[in-house]
Design goal:
heterotrimer; A alpha/beta (405); B mainly alpha (341); C mainly alpha (291); A: 405 residues; alpha/beta; Rossmann fold; 2 domains; seven-stranded mixed sheet; 17% strand; B: mainly alpha; ABC transporter involved in vitamin B12 uptake, BtuC
């Protein structure tokens, strides 16, 4: 028994000694190729989004290399799978930075994984531009190196929608609203803010429920929303529930005048595939749409289709968000004339950056400033298009929405 | 006689050396990537050893220990928040408190779960684990629900950050091992092994099976809870589904089986082999999505080829070899199965 | 009141699906005394197989069963022979690990071939429903429920009316004694596992038609299935069916009456309460040191 112990512990020591190493050093010399490390969820709960992120990052790397690289450094992306797990994402960024010694890092998917990763990345002085971690708890930990690359802080996502609803003439405006949201740091803040704004505007709350993110059977919840007979349905969802609710509503022949979901309808084919024609009328706050042409978006869409196939409507917003991260870093490095992490961090806190999601800038905690470009996208006739505000709308909003089959 | 004496001395010396290596590890491998793996590996050494106290000695397989892991995590997080402890060394002082709270929980769950046996017990532990996860998610006012719970972040420097956590895990693993050792060679331990072999007979000869089982369960759960607490502190932010995680629960079981159920060194060996392998595989092959298949294959191979675990199987091989070579000397230890290390 | 009725009806309909899935699981336990924690993954595998057939050949999902059930049956026999039969010592515990490894392997392969996007088995009559009072019952649920009844009926018929069924029941009662009277327990075990997998395939189809799923969906499933078979009594088919109905109705009614949030919790609370009074479950048999 003692022998077994000895063997075990000695083996442990030797194994680790074999992989011991030294600590990393300074910025790369001009012209040398660089590696950017990212932890993506390729297995586990967030794997659908992880794949879209990977596609976006890859496309960006391809484009930036075509024009000579990031400040003349050719870029290679290095992806590691975090299996949608905290333990792995922490290990991944530790390894990427200290063992693989990548030059830069980009963020993973979801606030859930971004938060633990951010403390690791910050510890080593790396900049952490990330596409998908925007819940309030991301920004209140006193870190200076994190940058959420989306046009608005998460809780403001539904503000445009509330503005639109309240702008409707009194006769048409919905009288009641039902709210259901996951207790996810991304979805719940949006719903709560929208609820307070709409209540202040005179729309009665017929139903409000916060459900655990791990719920897998939404039938009962959907039934309760149906029972509320609300005119407006506002849902804080991720993709699975975004699919389940409309399905259940259609089965119960329930057609609210308007319905909006926080994510899901912006995931292209992952959303329209399972729902078919019943995507009709569903809205989603979007910082990005395939049909916008500003800031190189049309080029992005064409290249995406050329590289990955499919149609413009199939492109997931996650891919666009990832691409934007690359764009921001590209412009920041040009402005700072350096890819040193410290300098990038300082640079990113000032100025404005143009991405396919629109222009953006960051406050001292890394939150995006402005809320300038959160639009409303709606599915009409199998296509997701901008409908509000009028300046970007392709068509006016379909209200009340057409009935589902 | 003399041979045995010097063999024991050798074993003891080897043990001291091994511990010294573990203690000095950060000195000769201070690289954060390595110490990170070391933290998680040592964590599993502790978890496997703790689980073995229940599963290995009594034969009651608990697949719900992840519930205690998560509970310990949340306990520490909430304590630190309640008493406004800043990040730093003082936070570690609250780990035993988290352990105590876990012990209370384990007493309650154990009293109930131990009324069942064998397969039912296994499933009941799973049920309790999911109940704990649901509570963590639904009691949003206390735990933060799906939004997660934040831990204070210590101000330690980049490269050295992992080291205090490594020592904390090492301390807990050593504590677990020490307790496991003491139990193993006590009347209490004999009673547990008797329960494993045939509970009704043990009861018939006067072993207080109920009290013994519950004690083992509580001890096992408390250690797991404390380790969970340090884990939460290390990753600085926890969510219900990631700390009350069935994968953690089943990993610790697998490690014990791999190394040798009921042995002292088995859990350690299992953890030392599996955890770095898992982290490494995920890191290098996760991107190709076949990492799960590889992991599962390794898993299956081991179970099918070495069903009793590495240490007992190796032990048997050595005994056979000795019996073959030693012949009439008979230096092997033909102990009955029930008490084999 | 109508809400409770609605919920109860929904509970019965979805309970049928879970009953089907759980029946395979409890059968496997009864015959081989192993806890197949990979059963959830097998259901998902069945769902994906049907998805592949449906997607590539346009067959109605229910019809795909004609292909998937035999395939899964054969696969089950193979899996049992290769991975389960060799386990001689520490059967129950090791089987948990082996079946878990199988589940992981299946999850990995499915992720590789189908990616992790959520999919659903869709039909043209997906949202068709008929009104009952103030709410609508979806046809898909009805068809699924009927399918479950049919298969469960077939299972019971086989168990209680055929010689082979007798052999299975003998093995479940006492493996050694069954061997003594000439039952080939290894063959019975393999076939029982195959049957378990075939029922998982059927359960998978109905599950896949009513839920969006991806390779990672098996975790949620297995925890509920395990709870159901314990409640029903390990190894009891009748128990599994009744437990599934009880559980799902309780869950849905709780959800309607209090809150959907605590519905899953109610699931486990029912288990705890029943076990307090009857540790062997509703129809379980209390044998010395074996439950």
């Amino acid at each position: 028994m003692r022998k077994s112990l000895t063997v075990a512990v000695a083996g442990f020591g030797l194994t680790l000694a074999a992989c011991g190493g030294t600590t990393p050093t300074a910025a790369p010399s001009p012209g040398t190729p660089i590696t950017i490390g990212v932890s993506v969820s390729l297995t586990g709960d967030f794997s659908g989004d992880g794949k879209a992120l990977e596609q976006g990052y890859d496309l960006w790397a391809q484009d930036v290399n075509a024009k000579g690289g990031l400040l003349n450094h050719k870029v290679t992306m290095k992806y590691v799978d975090d299996a949608s797990s905290t333990q792995q994402v922490v290990t991944n960024y530790t390894n990427l930075i200290t063992s693989d010694k990548v030059d830069l890092v980009f963020g993973p998917f979801s606030s859930l994984l971004t938060i633990p990763a951010s403390t690791v990345v910050d510890r080593y002085g790396y900049a952490f531009p990330e596409p998908a971690g925007g819940g309030p708890s991301v920004f209140n930990r006193g870190l200076k190196s994190i940058f959420f690359v989306q046009p608005a802080a998460v809780e403001d996502n539904l503000v445009s929608y509330t503005k639109w609803l309240l702008s409707l003439p009194a006769g048409q405006r919905p009288a009641t609203a039902a709210y259901a949201t996951q207790d996810d740091p991304f979805t719940q803040p949006q719903i709560d803010k929208a609820k307070s704004l709409l209540e202040a505007g005179g729309i009665t709350t017929a139903y409000y429920k916060v459900y655990p993110a791990e719920t897998h059977d939404f039938t009962a919840l959907a039934q309760q929303v149906v029972n509320s007979k609300a005119d407006a349905v506002i849902l804080g969802t991720q993709l699975p529930d975004a699919l389940a609710f409309p399905q259940a509503f259609a089965q119960q022949h329930y057609n609210p005048k308007t319905i909006i979901e926080t994510t899901g309808p912006d995931q292209g084919a992952s959303f329209s595939g399972p729902l078919g024609a019943n995507t009709e009328g569903i809205m989603v706050p979007a910082g990005w749409t395939p049909s916008a042409t500003a800031y190189g978006n049309d080029k992005f869409v064409n290249e995406f289709i050329a590289k990955y196939g499919g149609a413009a409507a199939d492109i997931s917003a996650d891919a666009a968000e990832a691409y934007s991260v690359g764009q921001v870093v590209d412009q920041a490095s040009a402005k700072a004339n350096s890819i040193d992490n410290g300098k990038l961090i300082t640079q990113l806190h000032t100025g404005s950056y143009n991405t396919i999601q629109g222009p953006m800038s960051f406050d001292p905690t890394g939150k995006p400033l402005g809320g300038v470009g959160v639009y409303i996208e709606q599915w009409q006739g199998g296509q997701a298009i901008f409908v509000y505000p009028a300046s970007v709308a392709v068509k006016p909003p379909e209200y009340p929405k057409n009935n589902w089959q | 006689m003399r041979l045995v004496g010097s063999l024991t001395a050798l074993k003891a010396a080897g043990l001291v050396l091994a511990f010294a290596v573990a203690l000095a590890l950060p000195a000769f491998a201070p690289d954060p990537a390595t110490t990170n793996i070391a933290v998680f590996t040592m964590m599993y050494v502790g978890l496997a050893t703790a689980w073995n106290i229940m599963g290995g000695y009594t034969g009651y397989i608990s697949l719900g220990h992840a519930g205690f892991f998560g509970f310990g995590s949340y306990a520490l997080g909430l304590l630190l928040a309640r008493f406004a402890i800043a990040g730093g060394y003082s936070a570690f002082l609250f780990v035993p408190v988290a352990g105590l709270l876990t012990a209370v929980l384990a007493a309650g769950i154990g009293w109930f779960a131990l009324r069942t046996r064998a397969a039912t017990f296994v499933i009941v532990t799973i049920a309790f684990m999911f109940m704990l996860q649901l509570l963590a998610e639904n009691l949003v006012g206390i735990t933060g629900g799906g939004g997660g719970l934040s831990f204070p972040v210590p101000p330690w420097h980049g490269g050295d950050f992992n080291i205090p956590y490594y020592y904390a895990m090492l301390a807990l693993a050593t504590l677990g091992l020490g307790i496991s050792w003491r139990i193993r060679f006590s009347k209490f331990g004999l009673g547990l092994l008797a329960i494993r072999d045939d509970e009704d007979k043990a009861l018939a000869v006067g072993v207080p099976t109920g009290a013994f089982k519950l004690t083992a369960f509580i001890v096992s759960a408390t250690l797991v809870g404390m380790i969970g607490a340090v884990y939460g502190y290390y990753v600085t932010y926890i969510y219900p589904q990631f700390v009350v995680d069935p994968l953690i629960g089943i990993s610790m079981v697998l490690m014990v089986f791999l190394g040798g159920l009921g042995t002292l060194g088995g859990p350690i060996l299992g953890a030392v082999i599996l955890e770095p392998a898992q982290l490494w595989l995920a890191y290098h092959f996760g991107a190709s999505r076949l990492y799960l298949v590889l992991y599962a294959s390794v898993f299956l191979l081991v179970i099918l080829l070495l069903p009793r675990g590495i240490i007992p199987s190796v032990g048997e091989l050595i005994t056979k070899w000795r019996a073959g070579v030693g012949g009439s000397k008979g230096t092997g230890d033909p102990l009955p199965k029930a008490v084999s290390p | 009141m109508t809400r409770i009725l609605e919920a109860a009806v929904l509970g019965i309909l979805t309970g049928g699906v879970y009953a089907l899935m759980a029946s395979g699981l409890t059968l496997i336990f009864g015959v081989m005394r192993i806890i197949n924690v990979g059963h959830g993954a097998l259901v998902i595998l069945g769902a994906y197989l049907s998805f592949a057939v449906w997607h590539n050949f346009g067959l109605d999902p229910f019809l795909t069963l004609v292909i998937t059930m035999p395939v899964m049956f054969g696969l089950g026999v193979v899996l049992q022979t290769v991975f389960i039969r060799p386990l001689k010592t520490d059967r129950e515990a090791l089987s948990v690990l082996v079946t878990y490894a199988l589940a992981l392997g299946i999850e990995g392969l499915l992720g590789y071939f189908f990616t992790s996007n959520y999919v659903r088995l869709r039909t043209w009559y997906d949202t068709a429903s008929f009104p009952v009072g103030s709410f609508y019952i979806t046809y898909v649920y009805i068809f699924g429920f009927l399918l479950c009844l049919a298969i469960l009926g077939g299972l019971f018929w086989m168990l209680y009316r055929t010689t082979f069924g007798g052999a299975i029941r003998a093995t479940m009662l006492n493996r050694t004694a069954a061997q003594l009277i000439g039952v080939d327990v290894d063959r019975v075990s393999a076939i029982a596992f195959g049957i378990g997998m075939a029922t998982a395939a059927a359960g998978g189809v109905v599950f896949g038609m009513t839920n969006a799923f991806n390779p990672g969906s098996h975790y949620d499933l297995i925890s509920r299935l395990l709870t159901i078979i314990v409640l029903g009594g390990l190894g009891s088919l009748r128990g599994a069916v009744i437990a599934a109905l009880v559980m799902l109705v309780t869950e849905d009614v709780t959800s309607a009456v209090t809150s959907p949030v605590w519905a899953s919790f109610a699931f486990f609370v029912v288990l705890v309460l029943v076990l307090l009074v009857r540790p062997q479950g509703l129809y379980g048999v209390r044998v010395r040191d074996r439950l």
